[in-house]
């Protein structure tokens, strides 16, 4: 889903996402014994009425040995259904016949998962997304204190694919694999809210190791995005269009494994992106001509970092640029630090911030302790930028010397 940049080939503030779901319906709690056939039957019964609350057997593992229909392991959710997992697991059995996902939330469906593990879905067709959970356009998913793990899609969204609305709270998405969006994938017009969660150790065979958000409205708050890998761009997250916010979150130890490029080992941004009090750290790429170890911002797009840090990221490939940040669009840093990033490969340039003809404003910010093989180590820009009460100091081999344009106030 990457839009490649010109160099290689383009509202801040708080907001609240209100999910207008289905009318509240009061249901008696229906216990579901530790039996897969009983779980299937309970979902069918709930779908045939006005929905239901299903309470699974505590600690039970419900093994799905065959698809219910098509590539759906369970009956598609068509009504408001709450599943109280009680520590149970729903898993595609290792001996199951044929590929299938675990849950499918239909356009009329509203699925709530509580304390449940969804595991080991498998999809092999290029047209099938969401190996763990698919949320169709119009559908709603709420996952609380749950886990989506070990699922694999040949297409997008190894763990969860969202075309409707998804809200994850205290939930872990881990060890999933997909083409774009190893852990999570959102399509145009989707809405994704993630709070107090962990998105870790997912793998994208193309872009967006943890998340690929395409044309979506997304907000991630107080969440750890760590140890994810992409084969191309956006080792942690790839944003393609849409409006996206990261609040008080951590993106750390993500990587792009491409040996020929690799854009945005931490974040690849081709959208409207705001980071508030967020730490982007120790992300890596080995690629020749890799750009933006922490953040890559595409031409024509906007990235705003408020009270955030981009630190400790490393580009090891030949001719890599901008180990901290590489910018071609509009970049605003306010009370933000770009520190201790490294571009170590032969002819690599600018450990801190590399601006390729974009618009950059730094206010009360610092670019310090960055290092590159060739000058400048701190900040390089092709055009004039705005520095307001900001410091570019302590970088190696130089702060700004060697830049085509040396910003006023940057010495050495």
TrEMBL record:
What is the originating organism of this protein?
Answer: Wenjunlia tyrosinilytica
Q: Give the source lineage, highest ranks first.
A: Bacteria, Bacillati, Actinomycetota, Actinomycetes, Kitasatosporales
Keyword Aminoacyl-tRNA synthetase present in the record's keywords: the answer is: no
Q: Where is the signal peptide?
A: 1-28
What keywords would UniProt list here?
Answer: Signal
Which SUPFAM superfamilies does the UniProt entry name for this protein? Answer: Pectin lyase-like
Domain of life according to the entry = Bacteria
Looking up InterPro entries in the UniProt record yields: Pectin_lyas_fold, Pectin_lyase_fold/virulence
**What's the protein name?**
Right-handed parallel beta-helix repeat-containing protein
């Amino acid at each position: 889903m990457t839009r490649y940049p010109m160099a290689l080939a383009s509202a801040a503030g708080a907001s609240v996402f209100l999910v207008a779901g289905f009318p509240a319906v009061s249901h008696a709690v229906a216990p579901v014994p530790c039996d897969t056939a009983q779980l299937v039957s309970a979902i069918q019964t709930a779908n045939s009425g006005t929905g239901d609350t299903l309470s699974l057997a505590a600690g039970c593992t419900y093994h799905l040995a065959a698809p219910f229909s098509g590539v759906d392991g369970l009956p598609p959710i068509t009504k408001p259904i709450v599943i109280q997992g009680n520590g149970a697991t729903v898993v595609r059995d290792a001996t199951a016949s044929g590929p299938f996902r675990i849950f499918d939330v239909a356009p009329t469906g509203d699925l709530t998962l509580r304390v449940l593990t969804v595991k080991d879905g498998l999809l092999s067709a290029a047209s099938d997304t969401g190996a763990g959970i698919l949320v169709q356009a119009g559908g709603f998913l709420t996952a609380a204190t749950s886990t989506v793990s070990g699922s694999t899609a040949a297409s997008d969204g190894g763990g969860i694919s969202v075309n409707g609305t998804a809200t994850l709270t205290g939930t872990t998405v881990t060890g999933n694999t997909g083409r774009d969006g190893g852990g999570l994938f959102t399509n145009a017009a989707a809405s994704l809210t993630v709070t107090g969660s962990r998105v870790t150790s997912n793998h994208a065979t193309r872009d967006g190791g943890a998340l690929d958000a395409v044309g979506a409205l997304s907000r991630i708050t107080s969440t750890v995005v760590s140890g994810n890998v992409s084969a191309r761009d956006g080792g942690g997250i790839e944003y393609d269009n849409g409006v996206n916010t990261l609040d008080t979150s951590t993106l750390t130890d993500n990587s792009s494994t491409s040996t020929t490029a690799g854009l945005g080992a931490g974040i690849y941004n081709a959208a409207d992106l705001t980071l508030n009090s967020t730490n982007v750290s120790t992300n890596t790429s080995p690629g020749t001509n890799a750009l933006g170890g922490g953040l890559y911002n595409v031409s024509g797009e906007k990235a705003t970092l408020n009270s955030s840090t981009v630190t400790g990221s490393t580009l090891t490939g030949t001719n890599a640029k901008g180990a901290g940040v590489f910018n071609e669009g509009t970049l605003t840093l306010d009370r933000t630090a770009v520190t201790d990033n490294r571009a170590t490969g032969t002819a690599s340039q600018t450990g801190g911030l590399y601006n390729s003809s974009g618009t950059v404003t730094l206010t009360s910010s610092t670019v310090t302790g960055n290092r590159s093989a060739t000058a400048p180590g701190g900040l390089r820009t092709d055009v004039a930028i705005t520095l307001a009460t900001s410091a570019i100091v302590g970088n190696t081999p130089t702060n700004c010397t060697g830049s085509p344009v040396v910003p006023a106030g940057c010495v050495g």
